[in-house]
Amino acid sequence: MVAFAQVRFSVHDRALFDRFEREIQGIERIVSCHNISGTADYLLQIVARDLDEYGVFMRDVLRTLPGVTAVESILSLREVKRDGGLPLR
Q1: Cα separation of 60 and 55, whole Å?
Q2: Least CB-packed of 44, 62, 68, 77 within 10 Å?
Q3: In this structure, which topology does domain 2-75 adopt according to CATH?
Q4: Distance, CA of 15 to CA of 72 (rounded, Å)
């Protein structure tokens, strides 16, 4: 399964963001991470075998990362389109 998690921080501190970004590099389940604008600070794409495994990952890994104060999960029901590359010219 593929899930997306919007991660929020209560404190906006550059050192904290740097530490978070370093720590997620070694977590294989996180396949992409974007620093975003809006109500969340980061958008993570996460893979798991099933909802139970995702729940354990949320509890034991994601919510324990430095600075994380809130996480909102978005579950993918099905993939409608995937491109192999970016159409940049």
Answers
A1: 9
A2: 77
A3: Alpha-Beta Plaits (3.30.70)
A4: 23
**Rounded to an integer, what distance in angstroms lies between the CA atom of residue 62 and that of residue 60?**
7
Sequence spans of domains, the chain: 2-75
In angstroms, what CA-CA distances link 58 with 70, 77, 81, 84? 11, 18, 26, 29
Cα separation, 2 vs 31, in Å, equals 10
Q: Which of 5, 3, 2 is nearest to 72 (CA)?
A: 5
Cα gap 32→46, rounded to integer Å: 7
Residue 88 tokens, joined: 């940049």
Q: What angle do CA 63, 69, 74 make, to 5 degrees?
A: 65
pLDDT computed for residue 6 by the predictor: 98
